[in-house]
UniProtKB/TrEMBL annotation:
Source species: Ottowia testudinis
Complexes and interactors: Homodimer.
Alphabetically ordered keywords of this record: Aminotransferase, Pyridoxal phosphate, Transferase
PANTHER family, alphabetized: AMINOTRANSFERASE (PTHR42790), KYNURENINE_ALPHA-AMINOADIPATE AMINOTRANSFERASE, MITOCHONDRIAL (PTHR42790:SF19)
Protein known as: PLP-dependent aminotransferase family protein
Length: 400
């Protein structure tokens, strides 16, 4: 039969798929469900008053920046923000010029631009196991051959990485999340960072370092970023989503000079520039050290919630043989249920019992561990966490 539609989809459109998570989350969107499934920061942390004041200042009568902030702007981003980002990275040991900073519409756009600039059909890419689903979504339309590297509680294994590099063509890059990873909450310690960087340098394997959660540490800052260790071999992604608000859609790429012009051209094609008004308002909010006061309040809040969920998991799942990560920052705990259980199959039962999680399978580029699931602990109170983990415990025990 002749097709009735005049549209012929591109190969890359066929490679796109609906977010597995969004489909799963539909099950969880019942009223009254204690939701540990989402990946949202706590709205209680959004600095509404500071944002309101900054908007008023930017748009005040006689303000010199009011009209420029509403005009088309440069594709690279607002100079004040680019300089601020370079200065922040300098504090973490990474020496970069503001000229290397490209302000993006969220760091998610950074992933998309990197995919366009670095991936050909069939290009080999390496990722952690598991990894951030949104990155897989950004990469797959370019039809790469994505390969998972064995990872443990400290992130990607340096020896497994070395082995992978000893065979096959050189991958275009490895995508790494060293701090409080989404989805597992794990962190690469100093020794692992050194070992991984050594292997990457030796084999000339570039790194895409994604760091949206790095500021959300609980007791001490994480070791310095990979960018600080190999400036010409790392493209770094940062974001204002978790330290201010994700609705601003403000993120950034820090790229070596060899890569920057192409990322800029891809940015121009995508949207000309990141909203200038949002950039101006954020520059106004942060200019006097606001984040030095604000971010510690987010850390304290998430720290208490992390304590609550680890205590509740020990109580409810400890006796079942389940295992989970011990995040030292960020928003997530990763649970591995006892052998024989399947998190996806358990989800409807958990929802019936009043709580929701995300099954871990969609976060794997390769063969998934179907026992795994992700819990976000930042949008529930300690009392809700207790109640939610009690419901999870009940469902897991019943399934054993
Ligand atoms: N990378 C990771 C690891 C994330 O978890 C997220 C947000 N869920 C992003 C990138 C995208 O963040 P944004 O576009 O809001 O900066």
């Amino acid at each position: 039969m002749k097709s009735t539609t005049p549209w012929h989809l591109a190969e890359r459109a066929h490679a796109m798929n609906p977010s597995a998570i969004r489909e799963i989350l539909k099950v969880t969107e019942r009223p009254g469900i204690l939701n540990f499934a989402g990946g949202l920061p706590s709205p209680e942390t959004f600095p509404v008053d500071a944002m309101r004041a900054a908007c008023a200042t930017v748009l005040a009568e006689g303000s010199a920046v009011a009209r420029p902030s509403l005009q088309y702007a440069s594709s690279e981003g607002l100079p004040e923000l680019r300089a601020w980002i370079a200065a922040e990275l300098a504090k973490q040991g990474a020496t970069v010029s503001p000229d290397q900073v490209l302000i993006t519409t969220g760091s998610q756009q950074g992933l998309d631009l990197i995919a366009k600039v670095l991936i050909d059909k069939g290009s080999r890419l390496l990722v952690e196991s598991p990894t951030y689903l949104g990155a897989l979504q950004a990469f797959t339309p370019m039809q790469p051959a994505v390969e998972s590297i064995e990872s443990d509680s400290g992130g990607v294994s340096a020896s497994a990485l070395r082995e992978a590099l000893q065979k096959g063509e050189r991958p275009r890059f490895i995508y790494l999340l060293p701090n409080f990873q989404n989805p597992t909450g794990r962190t690469m310690d100093e020794a692992r960072r050194q070992a991984v960087i050594a292997v990457c340098r030796e084999h000339g394997l570039p790194i895409v370092e994604d760091n949206p959660y790095g500021e959300l540490w609980f007791d001490q800052p994480p070791p310095k970023p990979l960018l600080a260790r190999w400036p010409e071999g790392v493209v770094y992604l940062g974001s204002f989503s978790k330290i201010l608000a994700p609705g601003l859609r403000l993120g950034y790429i820090v790229a070596p000079p060899a890569l920057y012009p192409k990322l800029l051209q891809a940015k121009q094609a995508a949207d000309l520039h990141t909203p200038g008004f949002n950039q101006r308002v954020v520059a106004e909010v942060i200019k006097d050290g606001f984040l030095d006061r604000h971010v510690p309040t987010i850390r304290a809040r998430y720290h208490a919630q992390r304590d609550a969920i680890l205590a509740a998991l020990a109580r409810e799942l400890g006796p079942t043989g389940a295992e989970w990560t011990q995040p030292v920052g960020g928003m997530f705990v990763w649970v591995r249920l006892p052998d024989g259980l399947n998190a996806q199959a358990l989800l409807p039962k958990a929802v019936d019992a009043g709580m929701a999680f995300v099954p871990g399978a969609p976060f794997y580029a390769g063969a998934p561990d179907v026992r795994t699931l992700r819990l976000s602990f930042v949008t529930s109170t300690p009392a809700q966490i207790d109640q939610g983990m009690a419901a999870l415990g009940q469902v897991v025990r019943a399934a054993l």
